[in-house]
Amino acid sequence: MNQIEVQVVFSSPGQPDKTQIQQWIDAALQDYDKDAEIVVRIVDVHESAQLNKQYRHKPGPTNILSFPADIPEGIGLNLLGDLVVCAPVVEREALEQQKLLTHHWAHIIIHGVLHLLGYDHIEEAEAEVMESLEIKILQTLNISNPYLQAHEL
């Protein structure tokens, strides 16, 4: 079973609970052959902006940051890494993109987990692979294609 730790540093109405986050992570890892450990940290705009600047050299907050774990071989840990989600950015994006907040949260969490698994969207071909996988995973949760409305991740 996948293990998650949820750290809520910033709390707001409509935020998912640990059970929902666990469901989304499990859906994203359905084809992953090991039990994984992931830390999900829900933060405010300040912490997101600080981490985004420090690790991506980009100004301002972002919806999610993924920090894959770098565990040496032979260590009996399957820590995939950490996800840092900026709740105010996710809420603003959902409103701007006219999406259900819960659906946008699910998409962002799944997007982050795929980054932990090594997927990326820098190159167009990589983006297409990652987006189609996100769409497929979201469909298993009865959530429609998020890219039909916007293309902002």
Explain this structure.
The structure is a single chain. The chain has a single domain (3-145), classed as Collagenase (Catalytic Domain). It is built from five helices and four strands, in the order βαβαββααα. It has helices at residues 18-28, 45-56, 87-96, 101-116, 124-140; strands at 3-8, 37-43, 64-68, 79-86. Helix 1 (18-28) links the parallel strand 1 and strand 2 (37-43). Helix 4 packs across helix 5.
The oligomeric status of these chains comes to: single chain
Strand content: 15-25%
Name the structural class. alpha/beta
Order of helices and strands: EHEHEEHHH
> Number of DSSP strands?
4
> Architecture, according to CATH?
3-Layer(aba) Sandwich
Integer average pLDDT: 93
Strand arrangement, largest sheet?
Answer: 1-2-4-3
CATH class assignment: Alpha Beta
Q: Rg, please?
A: 15 Å
- Unreliable sequence segments: none
Shape assignment: globular
The CATH topology label is Collagenase (Catalytic Domain)
- At the fourth CATH level, what is the homologous superfamily? Metalloproteases ("zincins"), catalytic domain
- The first-to-last residue Cα distance is 29 Å
